Amino acid sequence: MRFAFYDSVMPPINFQNPIGVFDSGVGGLSVLRAIRGQMPEESVVYFGDQGHVPYGPRPLKQIQNFSEGITRFLLAQDAKIIVVACNTASAAALKYLRETFPDIPFVGMEPAVKPAAEHTETGVVAVLATPATFQGALYASVVERFAAGVELLQNTCPGLVQQIEKGDLDGTQTRKILEDALNPMLEKNIDTVVLGCTHYPFVIPLIEQIVGEKVRVIDPAPAVARQAKRLLEAGGLKSPGGAGADVRYFTSGPADAMKNLLPKLSGENGIVQPAVWLDDHTVKSK
Ligand code: DGL
């Protein structure tokens, strides 16, 4: 299979073109980390919308507008595929993005309710995600398709995304937010925690301290990276490697703050360039 867009509209594709990845902030770096681990030969352009983070409490329509603006931005950076490394943006906009850019391959996120439901023994599963993710049709459809007979306990962990944006992965406040969410769920006998927000894999060590080793914590990032790889292979878009893959970062927030967090969150240093929103639909590099 090849994508019609590349066959008919574009000049011959440069396989070295980057994978575009975006999130409301640094959460998508958990997905970037998995992409880099599985496909070190691929270049990546990453956009963190830190001028607007958190997305979770915002109206779905506004998140959709931001997502469209960022997609256009990434395509202008020659992205050959877009990974929506944000559950909230996927919930609000993935369907719309696929309709609006029918020739661009997208990979999105959905809470990993399916593997959780397949493996739970107690039949009680925790799902941690943002309010917008829980409101979206995507989550409703995942629950309807996969969660029959399973009790799902949901929590939005208010403030957790902001703590992670600050790089606070194990401080008192971060711990309290997670204990408040998880302790009542432990009393109800959960044996699985689904991380339905790409920021949350960064606090897996803390979550594991709270829930103990008998509770399984599901990080969807490796599966999403595998899906991106499958899509690139199927579309004949994989980089043959050899030309020195690089990662470029853009943020609509303070560039230095993201730069300082990169080694801690993605395990790599990088140059972060600032971007600025002209309106809810349009973002440009400064
Ligand atoms: N990383 C996000 C997600 O996966 C967004 C969190 C937020 O901005 O509220 O849902």
Molecular structure report:
The structure is a single chain. This protein is an alpha/beta fold and 286 residues long. The chain has two domains: 19-109 and 222-285, Rossmann fold (3-Layer(aba) Sandwich); 113-219, Rossmann fold (3-Layer(aba) Sandwich), CATH 3.40.50.1860. 44% of the residues lie in helices and 17% in strands. The chain has twelve helices and eleven strands. The chain has helices at residues 4-9, 29-38, 60-76, 87-100, 113-119, 131-135, 137-146, 160-165, 172-187, 204-211, 221-234, 255-266; strands at 19-23, 44-48, 81-84, 106-107, 124-128, 151-155, 192-195, 216-218, 247-251, 272-279, 282-285. It has a seven-stranded mixed sheet with strand order 4-3-1-2-9-10-11, sandwiched between helices. It has a four-stranded parallel sheet with strand order 6-5-7-8, sandwiched between helices. The longest helix is centred in the first third of the chain and has 17 residues, at 60-76. It starts with a helix and ends with a strand. D-glutamic acid binds next to helix 4.
Can you tell me the number of structural domains? 2
What fraction, in percent, of the residue positions are helical?
A: 40-55%
Small ligands present: D-glutamic acid
Tell me the major beta sheet. 7 strands, mixed
Looking at the structure, the CATH topology of the largest domain is Rossmann fold
Shape by Cα distribution: globular
Mean pLDDT metric: 94
The largest beta-sheet arranges its strands as 4-3-1-2-9-10-11
The whole-angstrom Rg is 18 Å
| Count of extended strands | 11
SSE succession: HEHEHEHEHEHHEHHEHEHEHEE
Assess the beta-strand content as a share of residues: 15-25%
Give the low-confidence spans: 1-9
